[in-house]
Amino acid sequence: MELPDRTAVLSIPPGAIAVQSDPGSVSAGITAPNGDLQVYFNSTPQQGDESQANWPGSRLDHLSGEHAASVTQTSSSNGMVFRGGTGSCVADTYVTTIGAHRYSEIACLVAGGRGSSVLVVAAPADAWIRCAPLLEQAVHSCLAE
Q1: Distance between CA atoms of residues 47 and 7, nearest Å
Q2: What is the pTM of this model?
Q3: Contacts for 56 with CB less than 8 Å, ≥ 6 apart
Q4: Whose CA is closest to 64, among 108, 101, 96?
């Protein structure tokens, strides 16, 4: 799924279907038979003053200000190599303000030749271990353009 501004291509696995996302972004998900979201994939053009150096703090601040009651960083990495670019990533868990749902995610700021984009892969925290290989493959398959 290519971003409209052509700064990145989001790689999604078989079984994932496009879901509604913010203008300029692309998103996909895999749902359980009961309709609950099992896995979420998103790519968005860079929208603020995030940088490779400040990415973990920027992402956690964004989550706290948007829809999370609590956020905990579990790891971060700078200088990651992506297809066509480099990036910084942060892994975190958060609890939503509505419904108190607990999610785990990996969020990366990826810079390519045409610009920077944000890549997010997420799953309910209790399903993370089961879904991790699929989510990590989506991160490693991201194409920065």
Answers
A1: 12
A2: 0.94
A3: 73, 76, 88, 90
A4: 96
